[in-house]
Structures are given as C-alpha cells and as structure tokens.
Amino acid sequence: MADVLLEPNKVPSSPLVLFWAAFCENRGAMFGLVILSAIILCAVFAGVIAPHDPIEQYRGFSKLPPAWFDNGDARFLLGTDAVGRDMLSRLMYGARISLFIGVAVMSVSMVVGIFLGLSTAWFGGLYDVIVIRIMDLIVSIPSLVLAILIMAVLEPNLTNTIIAVTIVYLPRYVRLVRASALTELPKDYVTAAKVSGVKPFRLMTKTVFPNCAAPLIVQGALGISDGMLEAAGLGFLGLGAQPPMPEWGAMLADAREFITAAPWIMMMPGLAILITVLCINLVGDGLRDALDPKLRRS
Amino acid sequence: MFTYLLKRLALTVPTFIALMFITFVMIRLVPGDPIEVRRGERGIDPERLEILRHEMGLDLPVWQQFYNYVSDIFHGNFGVSLVSKTPILEEFLKLFPATLELTLCAMMFAILLGVPAGVIAAARRGSVYDQSLMGLALTGYSMPIFWWGLILILIVSNTLGLTPVSGRVDLIKFFYPPVTGFALIDSLWSGQKGAFLDAVRHLILPTIVLGTVPLAVIARMTRSSMLEVLEEDYVRTARAKGLSARRVIGVHALRNALIPVVTVVGLQVGTLLAGAVLTETIFSWPGVGKWLIESIGRRDYPALQGGIMLIASIVIVFNLLIDLLYGLINPRIRHG
Question: What digits encode the pLDDT tens for the residues A154-200?
C-alpha cells in the first residue's frame, strides 16, 4: 500500500521542462531550430567540412554553375564565383561571420542595455532623462543612416560594423529593461527585499532583473536576426566587412554585375541570409509563445 | 490638449540640439586634417591653410564654432557640397521628392495588402490561409531587401522584360520639367502620351522591394490585433444581433483593431527611409538615400553631415506629428 504514496511523478515539473514542452508544440519553431542548428554546425566546423579554402581562387573555374547543372563540376557543389572561389566554402565561412556579427551585436547591446535600463530605473532623475533622451535621438535617426554615419567616421571593417549596429540596436534593450524594471520596482516583493536590507546592486540584479528577463530573451533572439540583416545591408553597400572576407552581404554586392550572366552567384548568399534570418525569427516567435502564456493562445 | 502639445514640443528641443551636436562632432572625428576633409583637397600649403582656417571659422573657440553651426542651420545653411559646389539644402530638396514618392507608394502598397491579409488570417484563424499568409509574412519580415530587389530585377526586368531596370524616367523617350518633383504627377501634368505609364513602370519594383518588410509587419500586427478584438464583448453583441460575418469583421472589429496598426505604420517611416537607402542603390533611384551613399564614396563629408541632419530632422518632425495625431485620436494618451 505504501508504494502508491511513493509514486515518482508527483514532482512538479521545473519551469525549464514546461517551457521546453511548450516550445516543442510549435512546429514552425522546431523546424527553425533544426535548420538553425545545422547552420550553426556548418559555421563552427567550417574549417573541417568546407571542401575548399574560402579565398582560394581556382583559375579556369570561375563562374561555374552549381553541380546539378549540365556544365557544373562535382568538385564545386554550389558552383564558383566570378574569380573562381568555391561558393559552398565561402557560404560556410560566411555563416561564421554573419552569426558572429549577430550574436556579438546582440550580446553587447543587451549587456549595455541591461546596465543602462536597470540603472536608469533605479536612479531616475537627471541621469534617467539624459539617457532616455539619447536613446530617443538614436531611434529618431533611421537605423541604416545612423550606421552609415558611424561607418563614415570609423573605417569600414568587421569590428566597426559590430560597433555601428550595436549602437543602432541599443535603445530597444534600454527601453525594454527600464520599462519592465519600473513596473517591478513598486511591487511588494521588492519592498520586502529592500526592508530586509538588500543592497541596491544586488536588489536590481538578483531580485528585480530575473522578472524582466522573459521579454528580453525574445527581443534578444529577434535582435540577432535584425543585427545580421543590418550588417549584411552594410556589407552590401560596401561599408561593412571588406573583401575578400566571405561576408554574405559583401558577396552579394560582388555578384551584382553578374546578375544575368551568372545569377546563381547572386542567388546563393541572399538565400543563405534569408534562410538563417527566417529560422532565427521562427525560433524567436516560438520563444515568445512559450515564455508568454498570454500570447500563447493567439 | 494644448499642454500636451507644448510638452511634446518641448521634448523635441533637446533631441534637435543633440542631433546638431552629433553631426557637429561627427565631421570633426573624421580622420585627417579638418580643412582637407571639408575642402576635399589634399596637400594645401600652410599659408593658404591658415587663411582657410580663418575663413571657415576653425580658429574660433569650439563653443563659438558650435554656435555658428547652429545659427547657420537655423538660417537654412547646411553647408556646400564638395562635389557639386551647390548648397546642400538645395541639392537635398531636389532629390527628396523622389524618396518621398517611393516611400509613400511603398507605404500604400504595404497597407493595402497588409491589412486585408491580416484580417483574412485572423478571420480564418488556424486555417490553411492563416498559416500560409503568416508564413509569407514571416518570410517577408526576414527578407534581405537588397537581395529581393536583385531577384525581382532578374525575373521581372531581365527575363520577362516587364519593367525597366533602373531610374525614374525613360529619359530617351520622355522629358518633363519637375513641377512637383513627383514623377507620377509631373508625367500626368506634362500631358505626354505614355509618360505616366512609364513612371508607373519605373515605380513598381522599387515599391514592392521597399514595401515588403512593412507589409509583413502590418499583416502580422493586424492579425494579432484583430484576434484580440474578436474576443471583445461588442463583437459578440454584433454577432448576436445577427449581423453578417462580413459586417462584424469588416466594420465592428476592424475599426478597433486598426488603432495599434496605425501606431505601427507611424513607426515604420524611419524603417522605410532606412530601407530607401538600399532600395535606391539597387534601382539607381535618384533620391536622398543613393545620394548619401555616393557622398560617402566621394568623401563628401559636408554633404553627409547636412544630409543626415536633414533626414533625421524629417523623421523627428514626422514622429512628432504622429504623436500629436494619436493625442487627437486617443484621449487616454493625452491625459496619461
């Protein structure tokens, strides 16, 4: 009889398990996650699995179509670009660059955004006004125009692209963290923590912040894809990563003149951007639905 | 309402000052000698450098330079382009109608397709229509528009030969003086046969490319806003009264669902102007976006400084107008 009482399934599931279960229900998000994982693997192991060096130019093999076309070459699965570099290898190394830009932009702007958001919510006053005014100003300049301004002053390269796009995306994190911190601050549990003598820094980071995290995670996921698109746009305009770096946007810009002669050179990098960004957005939507039960029903 | 208006206006002032400060600092941060940067010349001899420095007021204290810069702006003097030697304001105003025309068309395209798409998806929630429309919307939202433009050029212009590849007007066949600066109006005004059609054909692809992302945003927004409204009591009442589904959705629900959509439309203006830079570059559309990019290539920093100042000002003023409009529509914001 005592066995019944010891049944193991009475343990409440952890939030993480519940979240994962909700996430798995969303077929689109799962699909996105699988493809995205494949892309990430390609990016991480590009050095091992890429068939060729991404900047090696094979003479006599320029503008080869993908292998499944009549005059394709099995050694160059997705064909070669205008100067005979292997498209597949370039795309794999390009995934590394694009994902790195996206993740770097997201992490830097998120960390700075969390710091500014929490501190403005805590201190208020003139400091708050100044920071929020600056964020408003950043928002009022169209994102690409602002990035162009920054790139015009700095030299166009990968690091500066990340700096420019980070500044462009900073305001959304600051505003988001500040707004949710401000709604949390007057609540009873915060007062209780204050009364029990928790220091401001610990109060903001350990007590308040975890309750602001859910929307931030969603914004972070979408921030990666937006950052990637922005950086690719800059690369396309020649203001981002510089050749011969296999950045997807810059590859597209190179392919522009061969749009009729060799359309696949232009097709591939764009398709790579679209698929990656789409998958991240699918995952982001899934995260939002799984984290926010209010939105889950719609 | 009046206090709200004043408050909102007062908030714009520091933003403008900061904007002027940033553009003022920007040109000073450009690597290289400040005079060479602004004159576009290299290796100026020291004697002339001194004269120029005095002429351009660079020997004054920094705060005085900033004061002069601000006062110049208030007098409509945004500097002179290094390349064309014309005042930047003049150049900007000549190009801006092209950007505005493109932006407006893209917005119309996005609204006219996005709102119905969102409504259909919401009304048939969970159906094949809903799933495919929202799948398309997410794809549009993820689209690198510079690639999308190239694909459309490849298919529609190069392969099918339906539209021109670039520009606003077929200059070989048509010429009309820019009365308003809007190709659609000017071509009609000129009365030349086929000119209007030509202008439309030039506009189609850039409009689609620039309108794709806002279209996706609006469709997604309309759907979720519509789903929320459809659960409201007044919608149930309207249904219970025996009104047709079309009327309930099209009139009772849609009217209320559109409020957040209007907000989104307002917010998209900045996005559109940013997207215009890419779209104009792809289609050689003679607007301010392309001009800005070319100015970078030519190291025409005064043009860049003035151009960014002007574009940001337009967005700030536009956002202000939208905010005031909300204040008029929605009393809750005014008093909040």
Answer: 878 888 889 989 998 999 899 889 988 888 888 888 888 888 888 88
Contact predicate A104/A162, CB 8 Å: yes
User: Which spans in chain A are helix H?
Assistant: 2-5, 15-25, 27-44, 46-49, 87-123, 125-140, 143-153, 158-184, 188-195, 200-202, 213-236, 248-255, 263-291, 293-296
- Smallest Cβ–Cβ distance between A225 and the set B142, B274, B311 belongs to B142
Q: Which of A15-29, A79-93, B23-37, B282-296 has the lowest mean pLDDT?
A: B23-37
Q: Does B14 touch chain A if contact means CB atoms closer than 8 Å?
A: yes
Each residue's pLDDT tens digit, B83-142:
788 899 999 998 999 999 999 999 999 999 999 999 999 988 888 999 999 999 999 999
Beta bridge partners of A73: A76
B301 vs A contacts (CB less than 8 Å): 152
Residue entry with tokens 């904007």: B19
C-alpha to C-alpha distance for B2 and B336, rounded to whole angstroms? 14
Cross-chain Cβ contact B270/A260 below 8 Å: no
**pTM to 2 decimal places:** 0.85
CB–CB of A278 and B271 under 8 A?
A: no
- The CA distance from A142 to the nearest CA of chain B, in Å, is 5
Asked if B312 and A141 come within 8 Å (Cβ–Cβ), the reply is yes
Window B:119-138, CB contacts with A under 8 Å: 135, 138
Are the beta carbons of B22 and A267 separated by less than 8 Å?
A: no
Assign A246 a pLDDT band (cuts: 50, 70, 90): confident
Torsion over CA of B107, B218, B148 and B196, rounded to 10 degrees? -20
CB contact under 8 A, B142 and A249: no
Contact at CB, B19 and A233, closer than 8 angstroms = no
**Amino acid A296: pLDDT:** 46
**What pLDDT does residue B205 have?**
93
